[in-house]
Amino acid sequence: MPGITREEVAHLARLSRLELGAEELDHLAAQLDDIIGAVARVAEVAADDIPPTSHPLPLTNVMRPDVVRPGLTPEEALSGAPAAEEQRFRVPRILGEE
C-alpha cells in the first residue's frame, strides 16, 4: 500500500487553509500514513455477517410510566418567595425601559 506523500499533505493543508512548515509536512505525512494503515486493518477484520453497532452491548431505554400527580397550588409555590405579585414571583428589574 503506497503511503501518503508530503505533496498530498501539503494539498490537504491548502484545502484546510493551514500553513505548515516543511518539518510539519513530513511529520504529518507519517502520522496520516499510520492512521490510514490502522483504518485499513479494521476494514480487513470487518465481516459482512456482523451488523454495524454503535455500542457493544444492547441498550434499552428505562422509563417509568407517566403518571399525573397533583402539583403545588400557586399559594403553596409562592409561600417561600420573598416577594409575590399577581400569583407570580416578583423579582428586581434588571433591564431598563425600551
UniProtKB/TrEMBL annotation:
Stored HAMAP family: GatC (MF_00122)
Pfam families linked to this entry: GatC
Biased composition (Basic and acidic residues): 85-98
Keyword ATP-binding annotated: yes
EC number: 6.3.5.-
Described function: Allows the formation of correctly charged Asn-tRNA(Asn) or Gln-tRNA(Gln) through the transamidation of misacylated Asp-tRNA(Asn) or Glu-tRNA(Gln) in organisms which lack either or both of asparaginyl-tRNA or glutaminyl-tRNA synthetases. The reaction takes place in the presence of glutamine and ATP through an activated phospho-Asp-tRNA(Asn) or phospho-Glu-tRNA(Gln).
UniProt xrefs under PANTHER family: GLUTAMYL-TRNA(GLN) AMIDOTRANSFERASE SUBUNIT C, MITOCHONDRIAL
InterPro entries named in the record: Asp/Glu-ADT_sf_sub_c (IPR036113), GatC (IPR003837)
UniProt xrefs under Gene3D superfamilies: Glu-tRNAGln amidotransferase C subunit, N-terminal domain
Region (Disordered): 70-98
Keywords assigned by UniProt, alphabetized: ATP-binding, Ligase, Nucleotide-binding, Protein biosynthesis, Transferase
Reactions performed catalytically: L-glutamyl-tRNA(Gln) + L-glutamine + ATP + H2O = L-glutaminyl-tRNA(Gln) + L-glutamate + ADP + phosphate + H(+); L-aspartyl-tRNA(Asn) + L-glutamine + ATP + H2O = L-asparaginyl-tRNA(Asn) + L-glutamate + ADP + phosphate + 2 H(+)
Protein species of origin: Embleya scabrispora
GO aspect biological process, one term: translation
Protein name: Aspartyl/glutamyl-tRNA(Asn/Gln) amidotransferase subunit C
Protein family (similarity comment): Belongs to the GatC family.
Broad enzyme group: ligase
Recorded GO MF terms: asparaginyl-tRNA synthase (glutamine-hydrolyzing) activity; ATP binding; glutaminyl-tRNA synthase (glutamine-hydrolyzing) activity; transferase activity
Domain of life: Bacteria
Cell cycle found in the keyword field: no
